Model the fold of this input.
Amino acid sequence: MDNTVTSRRRPTKELLGIAGIIGFLLTWEVLPRVGIVDARFLPPASDVLLALARDFGLAAFWLAVGETMLAWLIGLVIAVLAAALLGFIIGSSAFLRKFTNSTVEFLRPIPSVALIPLAVLLFGVKMESSLMLIIYASFWQIFIQVLYGVADVDNVAMNTAKSYGLGQLARTRYVVFPTALPYLMTGIRLAASVALILAITAELVIGSPGLGREIALAQSGGAISGMYALVLATGLIGVLINLVMRFVERKTLSWHSSVRAEVIV
Amino acid sequence: MPSEITDKNTVTNPAPAGGTPPNPDAMLSVLGVKKVYQTDGGAIEAVRNLTFDLRAGELACLVGPSGSGKTTLLKCISGLMAPTEGQVLLNGVEVSGPPKKMAVVFQEYGRSLFPWMRVRENVELPLKNQRLAKAERDRLVDEALEAVGLSHVPMSYPWQLSGGMQQRVAIARAVAYQPEVLLMDEPFAAVDAQTRADLEDLIRSVWKKLGITILFVTHDIDESVYLGERVIILSSSPTVIQEDLVIDLPAERDQLNTRSLPRFTELRHHVYEQIQLAKAGHRPAAASR
Done:
């Protein structure tokens, strides 16, 4: 209570944010305790947080986290490399852009989860299945952004580079790549979240090792607090990934108008 | 009065394309250049027939009413665009792509400078691309920044500087490139009047120091007369040369005294009249062909 009073007096962004989280946890704690929802299906927040704290001490939990993150990382790296390379090549050629456009527009909307049966057929219950889904879903996020980025190259900047004798390769390196970099970074940030979703989904549905499978196991074993704790853990990982991505973006794009502070020397 | 000036100072219009062989003394020859754009709405003739020479070490200004194809012509000269007809010769060799010994300064400095590179890196990039040794690059960059009065901000990003300073960076980049011919496409159209006067003097001093050939495109009549040794006046579109005028002002020019000379006023008056004629659709005899 005291908290909300303070935050009302000084409504800074951080305080409001913290107050919001505390309010959410309080509601979660109170609802099962007064019996508005069944505590068997929604244990109070304190139970879940305790279970999460207990998980933090277990090697098995960290192993599952490790497996999920490994699939996430490998999938994301492959998707970034493939999408960036293809994006720059196809984006630089009007012919290739038109040639691939309709195929891309057909393949892109296919939900990655629709490929689960195929993944199982091809790879069985292994990490490769997760990888296939992760790569498919993240690829398009990055690929489309890179295409936009390459198309955004400024005419005057390009003419400048040409007039100073920069060849095709030098122009790609010094003009096209930096222009497309903000788009690439946005694509990677989006893909990082999508890759996590697909990593968890694959583990849940296919049963390849990782946090998703642990969630399914906890649920079928009736460890409801444990299940919620794992769900919270995936959420925390998502928040962490986003924070890291934003940090990297700010560092690499310090010159870009979306990041830079407008100071006139 | 204008006729008197014209009689004394006008170089006779060069004959249209095909007739005259290129002048062997010319650093840059524009021979019968014509540019027609093919658009969805049909063909647009931006430049009809332009022929002129620049001697080595000349500072010539190109003025014309807006839409007279000045930028089109510059793109053809700089090898960024192929003319539909005619040709451009640099040192007697036909320009088919951006020549090594030519630099261009664009009007849009904000887009011409790369925001992801610091001032120094921007100036250095063309030299790096030419694979000059590091020590040589450093020397050229330092000299160029010094020449434009920007040696104190090499580590800033262009967007941290004022508009006038950004255009100085672009000029430094061109100077460091050591061109024989410097093309400038309305470089000061987007800066304020005071900065503009400073930059005009900067161009005069750089030109004298380096002895390079400069073709300066502008729509500003005062600027063309103040800067140039010669003013080439373009007609309205489709463009031909309206008049080729020698500017017989003293070589030492300064903003206050030169601009208050009676001769400056006469020349300015004359160029202004020609531009008005051009706008009104008057065309020199050569254009009707």
Remarks:
- Residues 37 and 218 of chain B are 22 Å apart (CA to CA).
- Chain B touches chain A through 30 residues (CB under 8 Å).
